[in-house]
Amino acid sequence: MRTSLFCFVGFQCRYKEDKNKPKRKMVPVKILILGSQKTGKTALCVRFMTKRFIGDYDNKKDVTYRCSRMVDQETVEVEILDIPCKENSVSLLESSILWADGFLLLYSITQRLSFLEIPGLKRLIDQTKKSLVVPTVLVGNKADLEIGREVTTEEGQKLAEDLRCSFKELSVAEAVLAVEAAVIQLIRMVLDQQRPLPDRRSYMLTVRHALTRKLTRSKTMQW
Ligand SMILES: Nc1nc2c(ncn2[C@@H]2O[C@H](COP(=O)(O)OP(=O)(O)OP(=O)(O)O)[C@@H](O)[C@H]2O)c(=O)[nH]1
């Protein structure tokens, strides 16, 4: 069963107050968080939504977390789907992957096995999406547990490069801002990919016109 948690924070409330202003469209961004068991997937979602770290999580069901955030002047309606690891059958994974726009791939720096499972998950994402440019952030969690470290930061960075992902090493338990930064970075990657092609084309045309004008002006000056 899929459950939804609604979380109304920050900008959404301020947005509602100003009734006279024309309402801007919300941009939906759907994120799927994947990783081995007990890597901190639910903890990360709860941290992002509520800023809290509770320490103990009920992970029996799929949960879709929802909130709205302001990202680069856009009001983004964020949905994060958290699937309990043991239910990860390939067909369930594939339908969740098709649903999502961007991916958080989580491993624990204290659990080498969780790191070794990342390439397989990324392969499944790329194959299901039929694309090699899928917005993805690789997150090495539990950086506060240095004493039990089994994966170095350099290994994380190297894997992210190989898999064409962004990379963050952080502690969901201790670093609320780092969690926020990781998710916002992924949202930006998704928004960038969703930007309609004409926008990108018109940007390129503007650049071309500016260059042509500059060239013409410098030629005129030479004469
Ligand atoms: N020390 C430390 N513990 C963490 C951190 N993040 C999560 N944990 C703990 O790791 C355990 C697992 O966290 P969950 O969020 O339940 O992990 P999960 O990946 O959702 O687990 P499954 O859904 O069962 O796969 C919990 O006891 C958390 O308190 C962290 O950054 N540091």
Automatic annotation (TrEMBL):
Matching entries from Gene3D superfamilies are given as: P-loop containing nucleotide triphosphate hydrolases
The record's keywords, sorted A to Z, are: GTP-binding, Hydrolase, Nucleotide-binding
The keyword GTP-binding is annotated on this UniProt entry:
yes
Query: What EC number(s) does its UniProt record assign?
Result: 3.6.5.2
Q: Which reaction does it catalyse?
A: GTP + H2O = GDP + phosphate + H(+)
Q: Name one GO molecular function term.
A: G protein activity
Query: Would the keyword GTP-binding be found if you checked this record's keyword annotation?
Result: yes
Q: Pfam families, per this entry? A: Ras (PF00071)
> Which SUPFAM superfamilies does this entry report, sorted A to Z?
P-loop containing nucleoside triphosphate hydrolases
Q: Which domain of life is it from?
A: Eukaryota
Specify the enzyme's EC class, one word. Answer: hydrolase
Q: Which NCBIfam families match?
A: small_GTP (TIGR00231)
Similarity annotation? Belongs to the small GTPase superfamily. Ras family.
Q: What is this protein called?
A: small monomeric GTPase
This chain is encoded by the gene named zgc:110699
